[in-house]
Each structure stands twice: as structure tokens, then as C-alpha cells.
Amino acid sequence: MTRKIIIDTDPGQDDALAILLAFASPELEVLGITVVAGNVPLALTELNARKICELAGRPQTKVFAGADRPLMRPLVTAEHVHGKTGLDGPDLPEPAMRLQDQHAVDFIIDTLRTKEAGSITLCALGPLTNIAHVLIRAPELAPRIREIVLMGGGFFEGGNVTPTAEFNIYVDPHAAQIVLQSGVPIIILPLDVTHKALTTAERVERFRAMGTRAGDASVALLEFFERFDEEKYGSDGGPLHDPNVIAYLIKPELYRGRLCNVAVDAANELTLGMTVVDWWRVTDRPKNAFYIRGIDADAFFDLLIERIARLP
Ligand code: BDR
Ligand code: CA
Question: What total number of domains does the chain contain?
């Protein structure tokens, strides 16, 4: 049985690789792509999402624009990481496919209402603003969500945008709080795991060897994306974040984690957006998330490369 997913995203080079992985995987049915402001403003993230669909040969995919700003804070973007367009690297043509008229939040609400309860997985690759709007507007739908699998946070590894905060959670910490308190089953792929999935030169060469349009575009995306983190961390390659969300759905056995409490600080400037993870279960706060720390990184890249090689 295929798993029905909605991808909520702010592309982003690593978001792009995640979307390609989902399209290339028969285990997953992408019902729609909902777009949020994050790495770059909404007008660019929605354009980028459509470019990626066309790159994958999937122009019939429905792409919906959502929130153009966080719930309560001004938008913070990351052009210094992703480039001016948010998708710097490959030279992708202007998309011919249209953006849907419906708002992303309405699309998610309608889908949850009309599809079988417990059948929809939300994959969150950016700030959690759209999903928080869904939960605020229609809290009665929370029990109908099968699970939310999200890339965000970091605890043992520290933050990547402040010493304590990861970008997706930092941009909209209030949205993250709403999601974490929703009672929906939540799986978190934080920096603690994505920093173990490095785009080494040898791994990037395997994308080049595909000799396909998607393979060449992946190389250009990865080579642009890793330059910032290679300099920052002094590593061979940079962490590849968002594709872990999709890989987890296809092969959860590649990952190790535990159910524990995860809370977000939205009150203190110094630690704004910090995910506080009760890994050792020293509080009696509710166990609200499956927090992942371990990965078989070689098997993750084997999966990603084998799948993206199937695309045109
Ligand atoms: C996250 O922030 C974005 O820059 C990436 O696309 C990823 O979702 C990593 O902190
Ligand atoms: Ca992202």
C-alpha cells in the first residue's frame, strides 16, 4: 500500500532532493506540495517547488502557496546558505505549470476532511507555519493526521542558526510549539541525525555518474549547497537535511531514536527556537515525539542515489 503524503516545504536545495526522492519512490503518493516562506520568501519558494516538479517530470503535481510569514515573528530567511533564489546551483527553466488557486492551508484541511482518517502523513521540510495554521483553524482534524514527520531542531549537536536553534524551528518557534503540543504522532529528524549524512565528494560523484537531467541537477544543487557548510564545519561535504524525512518513510530501519518529550523555547531571546529534548526522560513531561539520533548514512545515500537515478 502506498502512503499518502503532503510535502510542506520551503525549497531550498535539500528540500529539492527530498521532493525528487519522494517522486521517485513508489511507496509514496504525493497528494500535493504546500509551500511556506522560509529559506527565501514565499514567491520564490513556490516558484522553486514548481521548477522541481518539472525537473522530475511531474508537472501535474498540485503546488499550493501557503503562509508568507511566521505566526508571530518577522520572517528570517537564509539566502547566505541557499543563494538569492533559494535554489542556486542548477540552471532550471521557468516552469510552465501553474500554481493552484487554493491556499495551502485550505488544501491540507480539505484533504484531511475528505480522505480516510489516519491515512495522511504530513512531511514538513521547512518552518511549521502552514501546519500550525491547520491545527489552529481545525483542531478537530488533529486525530485524523496519521503522523507528522519533520526536519527540525537539534540538541546534542547544537543549533545551526544560533548556538542553540535550528533554522526551521527558529523561524517559527510558536508554530513548532503548536505542532508539538497537538497530540499528533510526531517524528523528528534533527541536526543530530542530518549532520551524520554528509555529501562527500565520493557520494556526489555517484549522482554525476547517473548521466541524467535529475542527476546533473542534483550535482549542481549539492555542490552549491555544501559550500557554505564545508567552510563552516571544515568537513568533506555538508549535511543533507530534508531528504531524511522522505527516507525515513521509505526505510525507517535506517534510523534509530526514542520517544521522549520535545519542547521549544519561544520566550527567551538567547535560546529562541531551541528544541529542549528530554532524551534521558528525567521529567514527566509527555512523550510527544520520536526523536531520531542515529542513521546508517551509507544506506541512506544508497537509497537516495538508487531512487533519483530512476528519474529522467
Ligand atoms: C533546514 O533549514 C533549511 O535551510 C534546510 O532546507 C533545512 O530544512 C536545516 O536547518
Ligand atoms: Ca527546508
Answer: 1
Burial 38-57 (b: 16+ CB within 10 A, else e): bbbbbebbbbbbbbbbbbbe
Contact between 170 and 103 under an 8 Å Cβ cutoff? The reply is no
* Predicted confidence (pLDDT) per residue in 210-260, tens digit: 999 999 999 999 999 888 888 888 888 899 999 999 999 999 999 999 999
Mean per-residue pLDDT of the chain: 97
In this predicted structure, what is the pLDDT of residue 128? 98
Ligand 1 close to Cβ of residue 275 (< 6 A): no
What residues does 122 pair with on adjacent strands? 6, 148
CATH classification of the domain holding 149: 3.90.245.10
Query: Does the Cβ of 229 fall within 6 Å of ligand 1?
Result: no
Residue 10: pLDDT above 90? yes
- Amino acid letter, residue 78: A
pLDDT, mean of residues 27-47: 98
Atom of ligand 1 at shortest range from CA of 39: 4
Rounded Cα–Cα distance for residues 49 and 205 (Å): 25
Residue 80 CA: distances (Å) to CA of 117, 200, 232, 286:
41, 21, 12, 37
Q: Which atom of ligand 1 is nearest to the CA of 11?
A: 6
Question: Sign of the C-alpha dihedral, residues 77, 20, 256, 289?
Answer: positive
CB 272 within 8 A of CB 234: no
Q: What are phi and psi of 35, to 5 degrees?
A: -115, 145
In degrees rounded to 5, what are phi and psi of residue 167?
-55, -55
Cα distances from 104 to residues 38, 39, 134, in angstroms, run: 15, 17, 9
Contact of 105 with 133, CB cutoff 8 Å: yes
Q: What is the pTM of this model?
A: 0.97
- 114 C-alpha to center of ligand 1: Å? 31
Segments forming the whole domain that contains residue 94: 3-308
Q: What is the pLDDT of residues 68-95, one digit of tens each?
A: 999 999 999 999 988 999 999 999 999 9
